[in-house]
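Practice problem. Given the sequence and the SMILES for NAX, write out the predicted structure.
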Amino acid sequence: MINVTDNIEAKKVDTLLLNEYNYTEDVLIQNAAHSLFNEIDKTVNKYIVAVGPGNNGADGLALAILLHSINKDVKIICKKNMSIYHKIALKIGIPSIEHVQSCDILIDALFGFGFSGPVQGYYKELIDEINEKKDYKIISIDLNTAHINSDCVLMLSTYKQTLLNSSIPKKVLKIGVNEKIYECVSNKYIVDEEYIGSIKKEKNEFCNKSDFGRVKIYAKKGAALLASRASVKSGSGYTYLISDDETRKANLSFNPECINSDTTKYDVICLGPNNGVDFDYASIIYTNLDKKMVIDADALTYISNNLEILDSLTEDCVLTPHPLEFSRISGYDLNEILEKPFEKLEEFGKKYKGTIILKGKNNIIYDGHKFYIVNIGNSKMANAGMGDLLSGMIASYLAQGYKTRDAVIYATYQQAKIGRYLSEKKDTINPTDILSLINNK
Ligand SMILES: NC(=O)C1=CN([C@@H]2O[C@H](COP(=O)(O)OP(=O)(O)OC[C@H]3O[C@@H](n4cnc5c(N)ncnc54)[C@H](O)[C@@H]3O)[C@@H](O)[C@H]2O)[C@@H](O)CC1
Ligand SMILES: Nc1ncnc2c1ncn2[C@@H]1O[C@H](COP(=O)(O)OP(=O)(O)O)[C@@H](O)[C@H]1O
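Answer key:
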């Protein structure tokens, strides 16, 4: 998985590598430059590198030297950079220009995580000029400098936290450092295919349906159909729906594999999708504390009026709030949650047991120790019922024996991955579109 760092953590990584692991700045800059060079489009010819005063600028200069070595037409705009790379660049004849010229790619190597705003004077004027002329593609190194209209950011070694809220295309490049080294600095990770592959459970040849667990869902109306169908399609051995007559009747034709009656034998309960806020969730929760549990939607609203329930939750409970629901159960201000989701989840997680997923563009999963971010979905998925579907999927993977945290990660990733796939074909992605593709190869 890829580590996520805020500016303070990124500086700590820097210090750690230099002081504890004997890396030098030059080794890191060289590694960064080679990764950038490998990634950058070399089918074009003209490049300009806008160079800042610090190591972000040095990365840009080292990249310019590599582009020059393969005879590309590369120029630098560099007022001040004390690194050896500036001297080398000038010595080998890379032209230094004062103003932006026409080119194919402009590389923003002005500032990285050492920047603290606002930008003024020379750099402000240069940034305005870069944005104004724009007949080129702008690629930013590590972070996009304030107000630059980048087309892409190539982050170095860690995912930069401020970019979680940016829609600019981005990629993390390795710089010759094993990610495990960052673990003592950051406990936030972007979930990737590699992690998903490592937790995926394969089916044994002699398996039986009872090996895949029993899910009992308390839900009503369309939300019940979505959650229970998602549970069935995600592979739980048995899915039971506890609902009203009308919903059960509709579910019979929509979801023939689901069992529309109660059971005393089950491993997981999923509570809430459109089940009403007047339902007695407390007694279901208190009598099922030995089971795995997914608490969603109306059950979360109920808890916000019966907060003492939170004290009873176990490690095997999953809460699935969107930001407003999280605000209701935590009492935190909604804007504060949106601005500082990690801090607020950690504060909440210190008080109560279990795993919580804060849903949205960045789905942030917190298990009381680490944060796992699933951010491959897209805004076309933002419509009613998506959360109901997700809670059914989480319940299903819990029943199949996934660790609590991993069931949440696995379900969220599968949902977002289908959303990403469909986004190329559709302008709106409905939960039923996702349902039809759950479990497809
Ligand atoms: N492990 C790492 O952490 C690595 C970091 N590298 C690069 O190093 C960068 C960080 O380098 P630095 O710490 O030197 O910082 P930066 O290069 O991001 O910027 C620091 C410089 O910008 C100036 N500055 C800051 N805010 C300003 C403002 N508002 N207006 C004008 N000037 C301002 C500072 O005085 C300082 O000279 C990363 O973003 C990355 O590109 C790479 O070289 C490879 C490895
Ligand atoms: N902008 C977005 N980008 C990516 N995924 C999104 C976005 N908005 C919502 N989602 C996904 O849709 C779901 C929304 O859940 P929720 O708000 O609870 O929906 P509902 O109210 O329909 O139950 C989450 O799984 C989330 O990942």
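Check your answer against the key. The mean pLDDT is 95.
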